[in-house]
Amino acid sequence: MKEEHTTGKEFIEQSFDSVQEIDAALRPPSFADFTGQKKTLERLEVMVGAAVKREEPLKHILLCGPPGLGKTTLAHIIGREMKREVRVTSGPVIDKPGDLAGLLTNLENGDLLFIDEIHTVIGAGATSGGSMDASNLLKPSLSNGSLRFIGST
Fold first, then answer.
1. pLDDT (tens digit, 9 = 90+) per residue, 92-108?
2. Lowest model confidence (mean pLDDT) among 23-27, 116-120, 127-131, 146-150
3. Which phi and psi (to 5°) does residue 130 adopt?
4. Which pTM value belongs to this model?
């Protein structure tokens, strides 16, 4: 049986979820339209507002909670509020260093990277699977400020 290989371009297209029209119509477009989680919204509005006023990127954010709370929706709202593109992928999709490199090299300056299920990325809390330690690949860029991202678990 022949093993299928995905090209870098195909991987990126599969990894980044472009916002579909129907999806965009269903998601609240702003903090004001988002229902629930009042304290979380207040904190995010302050953080995003301050970053916009300072004209600086937002610091890293980790959104956690059970499915259905709106973590992905909040990531998109943050992107709209900051007038930045949000790129969405999922931790289980990132299986080897090349996958992560492909994601990072296709980001434009100021883009937000949202990694759903980030705890499944090896080195970020996952305890089994692949040989990649994503935390060692990400830490230099995170610590020097050249990479900002939003993760959820």
1. 888 777 787 788 888 88
2. 127-131
3. -5, 170
4. 0.72
